[in-house]
Amino acid sequence: MKQKIIFWALTIVFALSSCGKDDDGKSNRAPEITSTSVNAPENTTEETTFATIEATDPDGDEFFFSLDASETMFQITANGDLQLKSGQQFDRATATQHTVNVTVTDEHTAESESAVTINVTEAEEETNQAPTVNNEVLEFEVSEDILDSETIGIVNASDPEEQTLEYSVVSQIELIEISETGELS
Questions:
Q1: Are 62 and 39 in contact (CB under 8 A)?
Q2: Domain end: 93, 121, 149, which one?
């Protein structure tokens, strides 16, 4: 009987001394969110990552992110990719800022929470805009006996991004050609 009491006493002491410690004998510390303010363009589409929340764990443990289950506008992946939920969109006329409470939890269930501010920025412009033809009228008069080497007219165009333009004639008539500089002949 005495041996049973000593065995249970040692088991309890061992169990209590190992509570709250990792395998290396140190207490597990919670990870910390390091990004507390992010920007998101107003034209962000639903379920597209607009920011990645960053965190560190002082113990080097792996961790994952989550949001409160009651969050209706945003979702976050385990890796910290912040997205609009399906059916949601930003509207700068209504709100230029949103706050969301992000929780980061490590593999030992230590966690911390931080309020992250989302600043809604003006919509990003399309990356490629169409070139514009600068001529007011694209009509050219041609005499019947024009030589095929003579210039009929010049198509003057420009590109907002200053990219190199390529000209082509879209026609069933094979009598007209256009050069790289926009000269019709």
A1: no
A2: 121
